[in-house]
Write a structure and sequence with these properties.
- The strands form 6 sheets. This protein has a 7-stranded mixed beta sheet. A 5-stranded parallel beta sheet has the order 6-5-4-10-22.
- β7 and β8 form a beta hairpin.
- The longest helix has 19 residues.
- The protein is an alpha+beta fold.
- It is 29% helix and 24% strand.
- It folds into 3 domains: 61 residues, 2-Layer Sandwich (Alpha-Beta Plaits); 229 residues, FAD/NAD(P)-binding domain; 196 residues, no CATH class.
- It has 14 helices and 22 strands.
- The protein is globular and about 75 Å long.
- Bound molecules: flavin-adenine dinucleotide.
- Flavin-adenine dinucleotide binds next to α3, β16, α13 and α14.
- Pfam families: FAD-depend_C.
- InterPro entries: FAD-binding_protein, FAD-depend_C, FAD/NAD-bd_sf.
- This is FAD-binding protein.
Length: 522
């Protein structure tokens, strides 16, 4: 007999079957020795009340053998002689497009401007030693895209839970830990992501697909408003029956190429701000309402804040508990920060983006001459200002959070996880007023909700500018093809149709399905 049981437990009770098995037996009114297996189906933490509780949803087997733990197996067919579809970019959008194309019987040719994970790791190591950024191999470009060296949070606002479950299953099949199938807020961690991504690449290649690194697409081959293929930077031409454009939000040259070719791109709302970092212990104390912190049974605490200040959203973004701030720029004269965490989320720091919504009409007048690319140029300018204020290298301009909120220069800075280092800078003044004033208002509001959040040991760093793209590549909602160019499928975050790993992956799967519909003449 199998029974579904829901239990609300203390963190210690929920930490091990040896603690909760007697409670399950009591609730089911059976003897513990009759229980043959307990499988956790879902797990979530409820930290709203002073006593933090853990909600467990369990499958309990009584007097009957339990099946093996669930593992969805994907069998990818041989597509080596099938029609070829070009996928530009090996981020979550591109990789999930490629795997879904294989399921549907098409051969993906994935073109990635950056390097394979193992070679990319070397460039990331150099970057953290304050070497100049390699514009083709960094935290945004290379195998796995922007999602590889990240926290690997897997959230989505997609209302289709089936789509999300499939993404989790694909990641699990390729080596992600069992917990991602159970936790209400799953995450993989930057130590595990490279192995998962490499395994996805192997699935593509073993099925007859191709993944080509150091292959930057610089142009599209178009005839009679239909895409026929692509041109690489080394002038090589590659042809395909369709082209999926999954180049992410940092490929500014791609937007510029499209714009120059009069292929429509449009301005959209995005967000920019700072990254804030606290001692993790402080966030644990605040979020778990306990001066002792998280104790032995709870994970590093996270937070999510959002409010409106002067008619614009101010919100936390990509919070990384137990993580590190990383240099996420892709070119010279740019200062960009982001965050990542290992699977155990065990660094002593908690960081998060804190950003302000920016609408096209908020962009200063001097950028208007760039038309639909004005947001891109404004984004570049803020990154350049932060680069100069950091001292023209990878050192980040920074301020104590308390000083930022009070518009004061910091005389010294707290410890930070950001390896290239930080230098005191008046960020409240360096950032455009529309951003810094709203951030100050937002921080004050968050400090009211989370007492202790505005702490002198917290640091803010500039700039968190790559939250999403200021530009969208418009596509037809049904065919998913570019409104002007048949066979061109804008995909993922760079196209403006996703934000984050999971939603980019879902969008990749949908683009592959749309490609199949087009080829099938539907
Ligand atoms: P990308 O991942 O940006 O991939 C695009 C790929 O295209 C890149 O590999 C790039 O090299 C390649 N490319 C670009 N131009 C060309 C060209 N011309 N020719 C060939 N290839 C090209 N999201 C989450 O959901 N959870 C997180 O925890 C999280 N943490 C993050 C941490 C960091 C440090 C960063 C930078 C981002 C993080 N994100 C996180 C965001 C997430 O990584 C992105 O939303 C996601 O990767 C977008 O997927 P994508 O495939 O659309 O684009």
């Amino acid at each position: 007999m199998k029974k579904d049981i829901a239990l609300r437990l203390t963190p210690q009770e929920a930490s091990d079957e040896k603690f909760y098995k007697p409670l399950v037996a009591k609730k089911m009114k059976v003897s513990p020795d009759k229980i043959t297996a307990i499988r956790v189906r879902k797990r979530s933490i409820d930290a709203r009340q002073r006593q933090v509780m853990v909600q467990l949803y369990l499958d309990v087997y009584v007097n009957s053998p339990a099946p093996d733990p669930e593992k969805t197996v994907f069998e990818y067919q041989d597509v080596s002689s099938k029609p070829e579809v070009i996928v530009i970019g090996a981020g979550p959008g591109g990789l999930f497009t490629a795997l879904r194309l294989i399921e549907l019987g098409y051969k993906p040719i994935v073109l990635e401007r950056g390097k394979s994970i193992s070679d990319r790791k070397k460039d990331i190591a150099l970057l953290n030693r304050n070497h100049p950024v390699n514009p083709e191999s960094n935290y945004a470009f290379g195998e796995g895209g922007a999602g590889t060296f990240s926290d690997g949070k897997l959230y989505t606002r997609s209302t289709k839970r089936g789509d999300f479950k499939k993404i989790l299953n694909v990641l699990h099949f390729h080596g992600a830990q069992d917990d991602i199938l159970i936790d209400s807020h799953p995450h993989i961690g930057t130590d595990k992501l490279p192995g998962v991504i490499k395994s996805m690449r192997e699935s593509i290649i073993n099925s007859g697909g191709e993944v080509l690194f150091n292959s930057c697409v610089s142009d599209l081959l178009i005839e009679d408003a239909q895409v026929k293929g692509v041109v690489l930077k080394d002038c090589a031409k590659i042809y395909g029956v369709a082209v999926v454009l999954a180049t992410g939000h940092s490929a500014r040259d791609v937007y510029e190429m499209l714009h120059q070719k009069s292929i429509e791109v449009e301005a959209k709302t995005w967000a920019m701000g700072v990254r804030v970092e606290h001692p993790q212990e402080l966030i644990d104390q605040i979020q778990y309402h306990n001066p002792e912190g998280r104790g032995p049974y709870l994970p590093a605490a996270s937070y999510s804040f959002s409010c409106q200040i002067e008619d614009r959203g101010v919100y936390s973004f990509c919070m990384c508990p137990g993580g590190f701030i990383v240099p996420a720029m892709t070119g010279e004269n740019e200062m960009v920060v982001n965050g990542m965490s290992p699977s155990k989320r065990n660094s002593p720091f908690a960081n998060s983006g804190m950003v302000v919504e920016i609408r096209p009409e908020d962009i200063p007048a001097e950028f208007k001459k760039y038309g639909v690319l004005a947001g891109l140029e404004y984004q570049k300018e803020v990154e350049r200002l932060c680069f100069i204020n950091g001292g023209n290298n990878l050192v980040a301009p920074a301020q104590r959070l308390t000083d930022f909120v009070d518009s004061k220069l910091s005389f010294d800075l707290p410890e930070t996880s950001y390896v290239p280092g930080a230098i005191a800078s008046p960020l409240h003044f360096v950032l455009p007023e529309g951003i810094s004033k709203r951030l100050q208002g937002g921080f004050k509001q968050f400090g009211k909700w989370a007492k202790g959040f505005i702490d002198p040991e917290a640091i803010v760093m500039g700039t968190e500018s790559r939250t999403s793209s200021p530009v969208r590549i418009p596509r037809d909602p049904v065919s998913m093809q570019h409104k002007q160019i048949k066979g061109l499928f804008p995909c993922g975050e760079g196209a403006g149709y996703a934000g984050g790993i999971a939603s980019s992956a879902i969008d990749g799967e949908r683009c592959a399905e749309a490609v199949a519909r087009m080829i099938g003449g539907q």
